[in-house]
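Bumping with the actual sequence this time:
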Amino acid sequence: MKRIMAYSGLFFLFFVLFHAYGNLKYFEGEDVYNGYAAHLRTMFMPILPREGLLWILRAIMVACLVGHAGAAFHLWHRNNKARGNQKYAVKKAHAEYAASRYANRTMRWGGVILVLFIVWHILQFTTLNATPGGHYVHGDAYKNMYLGFHDAPWTYAIYFIALAALALHAWHGVWSALQTLGAIRGSVIPGVRIIATLVALALFVAFMAVPTAILFGWVDVPAAGSWTALHGAVAGH
């Protein structure tokens, strides 16, 4: 079960790193960002249908999410059962035990927050069923994101909390997964934890950079003419 959690967690890490890279293209302007979003929908056409790659990735993500959450629940239930049946034969040092309990609790509740956030994020920017800030348009990703944070600043708090949970999850998950898979051990663990900290901070900063820039007016306002109107044949659904 730990290996399922490790492999699925590392897949999510690579995905969010790629997602963060794509988000930072927002700073290159409206045409570049919308063009990038459109390119993701048309990659590998005609080998794959429109949005084929995205749907493949979504299917893999759902499978990983189910596996990750299922393994986490199984391990949590097993540990609780073991803790109820017998006390530790050799008690851990109080500080180590407290740290372990804190990490487990943080990962558990952080995971719940992330699942809820993923649902919200999909409803807001993928299916456009939740559109705080105004009328969103399929294919006009730049404008949609601008409206979502500039005209509905309360969403900033949602993203801040969720991305803080993501950073904590990544910080603990990176070194824990590598340790589970036997990639690290002994004296190198402290160094890997430092790397995990840097990765977690980088993810938080990268994902919060765009919402922060939009909220404080550090990026260009979307053009009056819709990007979809100019490039509808490529970007529209």
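The tokens above came from a reply further down the thread. The mean pLDDT is 85.
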